[in-house]
């Protein structure tokens, strides 16, 4: 069983003791990801921007594992305020238009009050066929 830890360089990974993603035999488990802009270490105010940032961080972790958002099979959205969820629909719909993963939205408190969404995904990287195509 091959296991690889993927880091996005977030200071929280070392501080809290987790990996952004873990790749185990083609399954990629991406940790709950919030909307920080890691270039500036700021949290945007708009939930839609936080959602897009979180998906960008997730996409980068998946890319490092050789996968894309199209490989996502399960997604969990966690929002403190369920009234914010509809504003995210266009963002998540565009991100997962092809994958159409099984999804759940949960309303729960997050680590910091400025966090409006956290997204967790599981992806399955399918190996390319070996040898000549029939």
UniProtKB/TrEMBL annotation:
CDD domains in the record: YjgF_YER057c_UK114_like_6
Organism: Rhodovulum viride
Stretch forming the signal peptide: none
Top-level taxonomic group: Bacteria
Annotated protein name in UniProt: Enamine deaminase RidA (YjgF/YER057c/UK114 family)
Any Pfam family matching the protein: Ribonuc_L-PSP
Cited InterPro entries: RutC-like_sf, YjgF/YER057c/UK114
């Amino acid at each position: 069983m091959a296991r690889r830890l993927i880091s996005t360089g977030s200071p929280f990974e070392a501080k809290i003791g987790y990996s952004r993603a873990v790749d185990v035999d083609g399954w990629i488990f991406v940790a709950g990801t919030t909307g920080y802009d890691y270039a500036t270490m700021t949290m945007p105010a708009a939930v839609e921007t936080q959602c897009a940032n979180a998906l960008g961080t997730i996409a980068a972790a998946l890319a490092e594992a050789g996968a894309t958002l199209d490989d996502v099979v399960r997604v969990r959205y966690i929002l403190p305020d369920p009234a914010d969820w509809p504003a995210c629909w266009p963002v998540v719909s565009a991100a997962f238009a092809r994958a159409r993963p099984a999804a759940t939205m949960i309303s729960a408190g997050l680590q910091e009050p400025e966090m409006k969404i956290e997204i967790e995904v599981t992806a399955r990287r399918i190996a390319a066929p070996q040898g000549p195509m029939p």
